[in-house]
Amino acid sequence: MEASTDAVASRPDDPRSGPPRDGEQAVSRVASPAPPAWSQRPPLDLAAAAHKPVSVVLQELGSTPVGVTSDQAASRLATVGRNVLATHKVTALGVLGRQLHNPLLILLLAAAGVSAATGDPTDGAIIAAIVVLSVGLGFVNEYRSELAVAALHANIRHQALVWRDGNQQRLDVRELVPGDVVALRVGDLVPADLRLLEANQLECDEAVLTGEPVAAVKTTAPIPASDSAVDLPSCAFMGTVVHQGSGRGVVVATGSQTAFGKIAVGLSERQAETAFQAGLRDFSKLLVRVAAVLTTSIFVINVAFHRPLLEALLFSLAIAIGITPQLLPAIVSVSLSTGSRRLARRRVLVKRLVTIEDLGNIEVLFTDKTGTLTEGAITFHQALDPAGQPATWPLVLGLVCNEATITQQGPVGGNALDVALWSAPATQPLAADPTGGPDAYQRLGLAPFDHDRQLASVAVRTPAATTLLVAKGAPEAVLARCLNVPADAQATLGRLFADGARVIAVATRQAPGLTTPTPSDERGLHLAGFLTFIDRPKADAGRSIAKLGGLGVVKVITGDNHPIVAGKVCRDLGLDVEQVHTGAELERLDDDALAAAIPHTTVFARVSPDQKSRIIKVARRTGVDVAFLGDGVNDAVALHAADVGISVESATDVAKEAADIVLLDKDLGVLADGVMEGRRIFVNTLKYVLMATSSNFGNMFSAAGASLFLSFLPMLPSQILLNNLLYDAGQLAIPTDRVDPEVLARPAAWDIGFVRRFMSVFGPVSSIFDFLTFFVMLQVLHASHAEFRGGWFVESLATQTLVVYVIRTRRVPFFHSRPSLPMLITPLTCALIGAALPFTPLAGVLGFATLPISFFLILLGMVATYLLLVEIAKRRFYAVQAHPRRPRPTRQQRHQRRIQRRAAHFVHHPTRQPSGRRPGPGSTRPAPDRRRPTHDQR
Fold first, then answer.
1. I want to staple 817 with a disulfide (CB 3.0 to 4.6 A). Which of 26, 438, 518, 811 is the partner?
2. What's the chain's average pLDDT?
3. Contacts of 244 (CB under 8 A, 6+ apart)
4. Using one digit for the tens of pLDDT, what is the confidence trace for 735-779?
5. What CA–CA distance (Å, rounded) separates 801 from 691?
6. Torsion over CA: 271, 275, 280, 283 (sign)
7. Which residues are part of the catalytic machinery?
8. How many CB atoms lie within 10 A of CB 812?
9. What is the CA radius of gyration of the chain?
10. Which three-class secondary structure string do you get for 279-337?
11. DSSP 68
């Protein structure tokens, strides 16, 4: 598509886009006339703006081709509010509100209050104190985690290139207002709804709005009236990605008033949720339903047995609280925030906590070769004639056809190969030769390099006063445009490629009268020779490949290497190269054929930026979780397309903006650490779930069953709550635990069927030993009611906390899998505290009696037998149970996750609470909309 512009849409001088066209400098230098007062105008609808000429849109927005002034922007920001979709604030009241958002707790406290008022103040006070401690435990851990998350987000800024006061500057996207003029480049996320002022071969990926996989072509021309609110070629929508070309647009709508905002604001009312977190939520609902049935049954039966109504109610509610996994949200929050800090210590910065799970789910990693597997320091090696003999002439031509500019600080601009040529020692004597060196040639015009042609060309005036066309690029592209290629040229190329050299071909032809070359002029060339370059593999690249290979599949995408060279480098590093495909071969494959080819292809060479994003999209369509590591401007579109976009600190701003994760070191080994951290967090959280479905659930079920045949309550409500509090405290060390290597070797998996089967096996085992304890206490020790309760309290706490040592691993515990130090100490300490309580001054208050020494001797034998039986059951269980199956997200789930990922760029995370405003109990809410009502709203 040809560049399309409006007469009014002149741009200021931009060094990135070349010299301005005629008349453009005048626009940037001459003061723009003061526009009418913006506050007096009704809001402009984007669809209406699409139908109007640019000059009219600018007038109605009170703007100019070079945007608004800072004063105007400040005034408008105060009127319309920030360009955000939601505001996420961390407040103590918000976190406390979530902790208290449990109707069972409210009922229990109410019942305890009634109990205290009707004659048992001690028991009511104990229950209230334990509830406060339990809520406080969850509150402290979740609040600390929320503060860590807020600190992470406070340091993340998403910026756009904006014209303010007639000058370009980078601004936080949240500060954009209607009337701002924004630059759009390949890979940019469109920061607001824009009416385009300029479109240079501009295309936008609007799949997040329309679901259409084909990028939409953009223009500046007004469009006829249309019924569609998203089919607007003269506009660019917030949340969409610039797929190709460049442009400028004036902001028409921001925040929730945008088309994307109206979709995303509902999803942004809560933070983005991963598949694992959704599974945990569903699991918690399952346990709540079980607790409701069990609690109701216990209450009805106890009342039927003519037990005191209030006592039966307190006991039933305590059982329900014991079953529900109250600490699960805190465990998840602590795990994610701990994981983000551990990743930061490994020099991996995560922009969103939910990305940690996405990182652990990676099944296929596509990575660039240059700078990742290699050092990224490209150096010129030698210049050769077509026969492979050393020659100077190809080097001179390479310097003549060169897009780098020589400055006092050295060569700047151009690509890495251009810079390497000028930086080579062999260049210095040529640069100093005014008659035979590159300075002897006067450049007349340039056809710059692009990925479709794979070459660049220049027209120059030679010292002999003739015009010469010089072309330089990929050997296959240059040779295809040459006449009478020498027979030994192909042999020379084959030898160079086999050695792993990076090769550029140079060719010429006489071009009388040519001033500005075009692609059609690049024909009838004569091969002059080859230029070879070296980019040495990193010393630790082989270890990193091996480390990542144990975690998933690694594939290499390179845009500038010959397939033979790329394949050789990857093989030398230990990568098992199955097939190598080129960009030209991909062009002949439809999406179905490409999807079939991707699993068997290890290296994609000579691919264009469009082909990179296509490979990523097609790979995702097969259902696998895909990560892409890239650092260039042309990688930004693919970074947006991947499930996890990864960039590096040295990358371009566009690439870092598009990425979810930024590596401070461009090292695949660091990335492997990040993948393992994501999987470790998942596995450790799953340990808590398995604990809740086995020993804890079994003990609460035993308490419910015992109440049916005992003439007294097997445990007082306050004792059940204290037991649950100590159990929860013992599990807080789970996020620090070690994880077995074989578990880290596969992506994380949430399988509710697996959890149910685990519960059906290990829950009854726990209950069997509880009933065995009942038998010992009643028939062997002839315990009183207080001794029975104390004995079972000690036994149940010991079994349900210590069993974590067995459940935490599929291996033999301690011998083949050791827990972390906090994991070793914390559950054991909680079990010892429970055993010591009957001997403390609190025993009488809590309803315990001193236990005989014989009980503890029997207890040691019972606990050892229980743990042994659980180990045997675990071995048999895993012998017939496969690893948890990871359900594939539906297309709708993937689409919602993509919307939330884009919306995260437009969430405000204030570091402190503004004065005079009190938040509600929720931590995230839609951003306040201070816009004037539209005509329809009026």
1. 811
2. 80
3. 186, 201, 202, 203, 215, 610
4. 889 999 888 888 766 777 788 888 888 888 888 888 888 999 999
5. 9
6. positive
7. 368
8. 12
9. 34
10. HHHHHHHHHHHHHHHHHHHHHHHHHHCCCCHHHHHHHHHHHHHHHCCCCHHHHHHHHHH
11. B
CA distance 442 to 459: 9
The tokens of 664 are what?
Answer: 């401070």
Between CA 382 and CA 680 the distance in angstroms is: 48
What residues are paired with 525 via a beta bridge? 482
Neighbours of 569 (CB within 10 A): 25
Element (H, E) at 533: strand 526-534
Mean pLDDT to the nearest integer, 671-698: 81
CA-wise closest residue to 151 among 335, 349, 328:
349
Q: How far apart are CA 49 and CA 179, in angstroms?
A: 12
**429 vs 549, higher pLDDT:** 429
Which pLDDT does position 177 carry in this prediction?
Answer: 93
E-assigned strands of 158-276? 159-164, 167-172, 181-184, 193-205, 216-217, 235-236, 241-253
Structure tokens at 511: 């071009």
pLDDT: which is higher, 651 or 792: 792
| Beta carbons of 182 and 176 less than 8 angstroms apart | yes
Rounded to whole angstroms, the Cα distance separating 509 from 481 reads: 11
Q: What is the pLDDT of residue 581?
A: 93
Identify whether the C-beta of residue 356 lies closer than 8 Å to the C-beta of residue 678: yes
- 209 token code pair: 């709005």
812/693 Cα distance (integer angstroms) = 21
Give the residues across from 411 on adjacent strands.
406
Place of tokens 């269980």: 877
pTM exceeds cut of 0.85: no
Contacts of 252 (CB under 8 A, 6+ apart): 44, 45, 46, 49, 57, 61, 178, 192, 193, 194, 195, 235
Closest CA to 308 of 68, 77, 114, 567: 114
- Quick one: how far is CA 426 from the chain centroid? 45
Contact 629, 642 (CB under 8 A): no
What is the mean pLDDT of the segment spanning 103-108? 62
pLDDT at 285 > cutoff 80: no
> What distance in Å separates the CA atoms of residue 528 and residue 386, rounded to the nearest whole number?
7
Distance CA 840, CA 833 (A): 10
pLDDT of 154 reads 62
Backbone torsions φ then ψ of 244, nearest 5 degrees: -160, 150
Q: How confident is the model over 464-485, as pLDDT tens digits?
A: 999 999 999 999 999 999 998 9
Burial class from Cβ neighbours inside 10 Å (0-12, 13-18, 19+) for residue 367 reads buried
- For residue 921, what pLDDT band results from cuts at 50, 70 and 90? very low
Q: What percent of the chain has pLDDT over 90?
A: 30
Q: Are 220 and 54 spatial neighbours (Cβ–Cβ below 8 Å)?
A: yes
Tokens 């060196």 correspond to 437
Tokens coding 175: 């500060």
Q: Are 388 and 488 in contact (CB under 8 A)?
A: yes
By CB atoms closer than 10 A (0-12, 13-18, 19+), residue 332 is buried
Q: How many angstroms separate the CA atoms of 320 and 293, rounded?
A: 9
Structure tokens at 605: 């060479």
The average pLDDT across 374-394 equals: 90
Residue type, 853: I
Quote the pLDDT of residue 120: 62
Asked if residue 890 lies in contact with residue 826, where contact means CB atoms within 8 angstroms, the answer is no
- For every residue of 555-597, DSSP letters joined together read EEE-SSS-HHHHHHHHHHTT-----EEEHHHHHT--HHHHHHH
**pLDDT tens profile 520-550:** 999 999 999 999 998 888 878 888 888 887 7
Cβ(251)–Cβ(261) under 8 Å? Answer: no
Highest-confidence segment of 8-17, 38-47, 324-333: 38-47
Higher pLDDT, 275 or 530: 530
